[in-house]
Q: What sequence folds into this?
């Protein structure tokens, strides 16, 4: 009995010791590199620009993941996975149409990319169309300055469109009864939900930016009143 009690005590001590150990490094927050264009940006412009950059980077990461799970797709348009990624990324950044989408843009392109009978590079079409739809919701721009404005409802709609697109990607089947693209894997051995998490980040950023835009003008009025009230308490200090 004493032996069992001693083992329990030692086990508890080991557990407490493990819990009290400082966690390992988990990275650090990193901002975007600065540039001369920042002088023409308000805080809102900067937030929108950063959000757009992060969302596009998330889509490029998802494209790489989708190509790795669906290698037959990049073979339809390129000699290698890296070449396919480069082509799609360049087309998005240059705001050019994707050849495989028959000139369609925005939500029309997204609908075409998710059709079960679509025969082209579905990864390229899906990522391009999603990016184009998000950029369209931002007024067709990826950088924002003092003369620019954003529509909060369009941003909100873009977030919902991403949710719909991800649901269609996982629920629709082709003529052979197979998923349109292999993405998240929920098997008996392990759960790989990295696609869902990354798409969730995109949706979250869009929703936060949409909410922030609805607050913009109300906060401008509040800040004005705060400055008026605070200004009465700002006095120079005597120096002699």
A:
């Amino acid at each position: 009995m004493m032996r069992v009690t001693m083992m329990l005590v030692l086990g508890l001590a080991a557990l407490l010791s493990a819990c009290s150990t400082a966690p390992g490094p988990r990275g650090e927050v990193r901002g975007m590199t600065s540039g001369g264009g920042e002088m023409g940006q308000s805080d809102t412009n900067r937030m929108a620009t950063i959000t757009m950059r992060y969302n596009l980077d998330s889509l490029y990461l998802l494209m790489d993941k989708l190509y790795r799970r669906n290698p037959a797709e990049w073979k339809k348009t390129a000699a290698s996975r890296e070449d396919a990624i480069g082509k799609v990324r360049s087309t998005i950044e240059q705001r050019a149409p994707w050849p495989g989408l028959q000139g369609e843009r925005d939500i029309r392109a997204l609908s075409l990319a998710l059709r079960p009978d679509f025969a082209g590079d579905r990864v390229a079409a899906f990522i391009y169309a999603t990016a184009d739809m998000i950029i369209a919701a931002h007024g067709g721009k990826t950088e924002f300055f003092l003369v620019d404005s954003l529509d909060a409802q369009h941003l909100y709609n873009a977030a919902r469109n991403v949710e719909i697109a991800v649901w269609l990607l996982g629920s629709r089947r082709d003529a052979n009864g197979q998923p349109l693209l292999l993405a998240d894997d929920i098997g008996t051995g392990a759960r790989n939900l990295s696609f869902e998490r990354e798409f969730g980040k995109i949706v979250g950023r869009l929703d936060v930016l949409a909410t922030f835009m609805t607050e913009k003008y109300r906060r401008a009025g509040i800040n004005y009143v705060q400055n008026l009230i605070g200004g009465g308490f700002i006095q120079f200090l005597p120096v002699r």
The mean pLDDT is 83. Residues 77 and 121 are 7 Å apart (CA to CA). Helices lie at 2-20, 43-69, 71-74, 81-93, 106-113, 122-137, 152-171, 194-231. The first helix runs from residue 2 to 20.
